[in-house]
Amino acid sequence: MRRNHTRTPLIEAIERHRSIHPISFHVPGHKNGLLVGDHPFYQGDLTELSGLDDLHDSHEAIREAEKLLGDVYGSLESHFLVNGSTVGNIAAILASCETGNIVFVQRNCHKSVLNGIRLAKAVPVFIETEWDDAGTALGIRLDAVKEAMKAFPQVKACVLTYPTYYGYTYNLKEIIDECHKHEVICIIDEAHGAHFTLGSPFPESAMEYGADMVVHSAHKMLPAMTMGSYLHIGSKRVDAHKVKEYLTMLQSSSPSYPIMASLDYARSYVGTFIKEDLDQTLEGIRELINGIERIHPQLIVQQADDPLKLIMRLEGRTGYALQELLESVGVYPELADPNQVLLILPLVKKGLSFPYTEAIGRINKALENEPMVEVIPMEGISTSRRTTPFSTLALSLEEMDGKVEALISLDDAEGEVSAGMVTPYPPGIPLLVPGERITADVIRRLNEYIVNKANIQGHHRLADHCVYVYR
Ligand SMILES: Cc1ncc(COP(=O)(O)O)c(C=O)c1O
C-alpha cells in the first residue's frame, strides 16, 4: 500500500523547530534570518540541529522523507541531492565505473555525464543521436547500442538521457533490456522527467523500465528549489554503499535545509497529484496551444512526447529572434536555439492557477505585427549528422594528460583534437569534448551559436574566434 504522501516529515520538523522561537548560536550566519530583517527566504535555512536529522547520516525526518520519495518512484533507495542532477550523474558514474571501464553514453548528454566519466577515468563510447529536420534531438536507436555492444562487449555501464531536454523519448525499455542481457548497469539521466511517474499522458518513466539508477532534477519539472534533485537506485546491480559514499564526498557537509524541504514538498506534490489535478494541467496546456496557434501564420507550435514541453518556431527567424520578441513582452522561454524556443509548462494542481490567458495576450502582442518573411530552407542538423552509430575519442585520457594545448582559429580547427569542453548553455550539451576530433559540422554549429550571441561555457576563446586543441 502506498504511504501517506500528504506528510512532509522534513518540513514538519523545520516548522516544529521554528515554532519554539529558537535562539540561534549556530550556523548559518544570518541567525534564522534575524540579520536580514526576518526575510522569509532565510527563516527555514537551518542546520543539523536536534530533531532536524543529517542528510549524510539520516535516521529521522530526512530518512522518512527519503523513504516517502522511494515509495513514489518505486526505488530500492532514494536520495535527496542538494547539488542538482549534476552531482547525481557524477556519483552514479563514479559508483559504477573504474579506471579504463568502457561506458556507453549518448553523445548529446549533459556535461555532468562527461565530467563524471572523466573523473572515473572511464572510456566513453558515444552513441549517436537521431535528430529531426529542425535540429531537435530525438533519442538513440537500439541498433546503435547493439552495434556498439558488438564492438565493445566488455562495456560496464550505459548512461542515457531520457527524455531529451526538449521532451522527446525513445525505446528506452528495449535498450535497458539489451544492456541487462550483458549485465551492463543502466544509469538514466531523467533530469527532465521527474513527473513521468504520474503515468499517461506522460511517457513511461525510466524506473518503470527497469533502470538501475535514475537521476531527477526535481527543480526542473516539480516545484522544488533550484539545485534540488533526486537519485534513485532501482536494482541490486548498483553498489548502494558506494553511491552513498560518493554523494557524501561530493556534496556539501552543510546541505541546504530550504532545498531539502523543497524536495520534501515536491515529492508530496507529485505523490498527491490526482486525476483532477492532471485535468487542470492539461486544460491549461490546451488553452495555451489553442490560444497561440492562430496568432501568426508562420508560428509553428509543437508539443513534444512530454506534454509539458512546447516548442515554438517562427518561420524565417531564428529561435533567438523569437526569444527576443517574447521577452520584449515579459514572456521568458526556457531556452532558444538557432531554430526554435522551448517552453516548459507547469504541473498545475486543482485550486492553483497559472496565467495562461495573460501569456496568450502578451504573445499575441509580441507577434501580431510581425511581417510574413520569405523562408530560406535551413541546413538541418539532420543533413549533416554522423553516419556511424557510435564513435570514440581520438585521444585517451592518458594521452591527453601529456599533451600541450594550442590556441587556433575555429576556422582552422577541422580535423584537430579538441582540448576543451565547449558547451552552449542552456542546454548544457557540449559541442566539443576534450579528446574528440573536431568536425566541419561542429564548426558550423558553433558558428551559428556565436553569430546568435549564445552563452557558451567552457575552455575556449570564442570571443576571439579561437579554440584550444591538442597538438
Ligand atoms: C539532461 C540534463 N541532465 C543533467 C542536468 C544537470 O542538472 P542540474 O542543473 O540539476 O544539476 C541538466 C541541466 O540542465 C540536464 O538538462
Describe this structure in words.
It contains 15 helices and 20 strands. With 471 residues, the chain is of the alpha+beta class. The protein folds into 3 domains: 9-271, Type I PLP-dependent aspartate aminotransferase-like (Major domain) (Aspartate Aminotransferase, domain 2), CATH 3.40.640.10; 275-367, Aspartate Aminotransferase, domain 1 (Alpha-Beta Complex); 393-470, Molybdopterin biosynthesis moea protein, domain 2 (Alpha-Beta Complex), CATH 3.90.105. The strands form 5 sheets. The chain has an 8-stranded mixed β-sheet with strand order 1-9-8-7-6-2-3-14. Helix 7 (172-181) links the parallel strand 6 (157-161) and strand 7. The protein is globular, with a radius of gyration of 23 Å. Mean pLDDT is 93; it is low at 380-384. Bound molecules: pyridoxal-5'-phosphate. Pyridoxal-5'-phosphate is lined by residues 84-86, 110, 112, 161, 165, 189, 191-192, 217, 229, 427-428.
